[in-house]
Design brief:
This protein is of the alpha/beta class and 463 residues long. It folds into three domains: 37 residues; 207 residues, Rossmann fold; 180 residues, Ribosomal Protein S5, domain 2. 26% of the residues lie in helices and 25% in strands. Strand 13 and strand 14 form a beta hairpin. Helix 9 packs across helix 12. Bound molecules: thymidine-5'-diphosphate and magnesium ion (MG). Magnesium ion (MG) binds next to helix 3.
Length: 463
């Protein structure tokens, strides 16, 4: 068998190269290309030699497994996103833009876990102990039984952790930590990976819950926490719009619970406050009967969330009209516009279209299609939708309305917030308890529609 050619990799961005060079083609870093050690000696050789592996014990799937032990912080929005609490011997990554509030969230979380009886260490590599203390004082947590360390040398940190054996360790942030055995700058891919690997191993070895903070860099997250997502058990992203007080903690991966769960917080002078009823918050500053606004009854994780979708449609002299989206997928908007034009004969040519999800939420559900279409039509016709109506449903390319999951939960949440009617796909309406004929959840009046043409006819007269 031919010998594999040597492989090279950039220690800054992780890009693979076929040959050594002084400067990385991918990220432009100098002197960052190193030869990669070949992956083991190759299975072919091992098979022949005497050094065989041992047999691994095989178990049956049916063996009873106790659920993992969890600790709860009492911050219910945090516990929910963790899947019902923090799991022992687990590694969790909390990523987010610099300045979004990660340190604040984790200091508050650490204090809560410590107060509930976990021995807790908070290691800051970004701020001096005095700064962390100041923040704790501002958050009213000065008395919390959290042990503090300001350190970036991971070898020293691990020695300390091995001696102290805490239940919970927060590492803020993974980009500031460094291992002396890795020849690369802190924050580079090889350091970040090595540090994450060591800490994950430590979590498994000692039964400690480890939380890693990672900054996400705007340019593609190359040296960011994305490169360690596969190593950890749980990945949470802390997001929000600058200038908005709302912050969302979103699970994107969770080996111990549902992914896609969100926790909603509001920034205050005393730190992050839980928002137990996010729908009320997202709808709090709605204007009365504004054209172009539609309320979408969505599901985020396991919880229904109501949010306003706003559209603005304006004539433009440009040959290429603008399509601007905040909080939703631009490709999906293009699709809805095309379906409206092709199936309901409502053209948007010559019109600029702006779409915004209020409150800084980012929606990924296809169930938002119908609410988006409603907002677009309402803006185009300059006709406000009924104030007390929620809308949801997926639109297919044929213009048919497809049912979506959890219609009942969506309606219950809407009823709780004072909405009294809902527009949704006919098949979803038919599937409701009572077959759509009896009273819908919460006494809502439900209007089921088969396709986009029916929807346009019913909501906007003849269209
Ligand atoms: P910080 O937690 O330091 O963000 P990160 O660790 O993600 O970089 O928060 C950034 C700034 O915002 C900091 O000066 C404190 C302030 N802040 C508040 O005043 N109240 C809050 O609820 C939060 C989350 C932050
Ligand atoms: Mg920070």
């Amino acid at each position: 068998m031919a010998k594999a050619p040597p492989a090279y990799r950039c220690t800054e961005c992780g890009a693979r190269q076929t040959k050594w060079s002084g400067r990385c083609d991918a990220c432009g870093a100098w002197n960052s290309i190193t030869e990669e050690a070949p992956l083991s000696q190759g299975p072919g050789k091992a098979r022949l030699g005497p050094a065989r592996g041992r047999t691994v014990p095989l178990a049956s799937l049916a063996e009873a497994e106790a659920p993992p032990a969890r600790a709860t912080s009492g911050l219910s929005e945090l516990d929910r996103v963790l899947g019902g609490g923090l799991v022992q011997a687990s590694a969790t990554l909390v990523g987010g833009d610099p300045g979004i509030g990660k340190s604040t969230l984790l200091l508050q979380g650490a204090a809560r876990f410590a107060a509930s009886g976990l021995s807790t260490i908070y290691v800051s590599g970004e701020e001096a102990a005095a700064q962390v203390r100041l923040r704790a004082a501002r958050l009213g947590l000065a008395e919390a039984p959290v042990a503090l360390a300001a350190e970036t040398n991971l070898r020293d940190i691990l020695t300390t952790l091995d001696a102290e054996r805490p239940d919970l360790v927060v590492i803020d942030s993974i980009q500031t930590m460094w291992l002396d055995s890795v020849e690369a700058a802190p924050g580079s891919v090889s350091q970040v990976r090595a540090v994450a690997h060591e800490l994950t191993q430590f979590a498994k070895r000692r039964g400690t819950a480890v939380i890693l903070v990672g900054h996400v860099t705007k340019e593609g997250q190359i040296a960011g926490p994305r490169t360690v997502e596969h190593m950890v058990d749980t990945v949470l992203y802390f997001e929000g719009e600058r200038g908005h007080p709302f912050r969302l903690l979103r699970a994107v991966k969770n080996r111990f619970g549902p992914a896609d769960e969100i926790g909603v917080f509001e920034m205050t002078g005393q730190g992050l406050a839980e928002v137990l009823n996010p729908s009320a918050l997202f709808l709090s500053d709605r204007e009365a009967r504004a054209p172009g606004a539609a309320v979408f009854a969505g599901i985020e994780g396991t919880r229904p969330v109501l949010v306003e979708i706003q559209a603005l449609v304006a004539p433009t002299p440009q040959a290429q009209p603008r399509r601007t989206v905040v909080g939703w997928d631009g490709g999906r908007l293009a699709m809805i516009l095309a379906v409206l034009e092709a199936r309901a004969a409502i053209p948007f040519a010559g019109l600029d279209v702006y779409l915004n999800v209020a409150g800084g939420l980012r929606i990924t559900e296809p169930a938002a299609d119908l609410a988006v279409a409603a907002a677009l039509l309402s803006a185009r016709e300059d006709a406000a939708l009924p104030q007390d109506m929620v809308i949801f449903g997926e639109i297919s390319l044929s213009g048919a309305l497809r049912p979506v999951s959890q219609a009942e939960n969506r309606l219950k949440e809407a009823a709780k917030l004072g909405f009294s009617q809902a527009a949704l796909p006919a098949r979803a309406a038919g599937a409701l308890s009572g077959g759509g004929a009896g009273p819908a959840p919460g006494g809502m009046s439900v209007r089921g529609m088969a396709d986009l043409t029916a929807f346009v006819g019913e909501m906007f007269g003849a269209g």
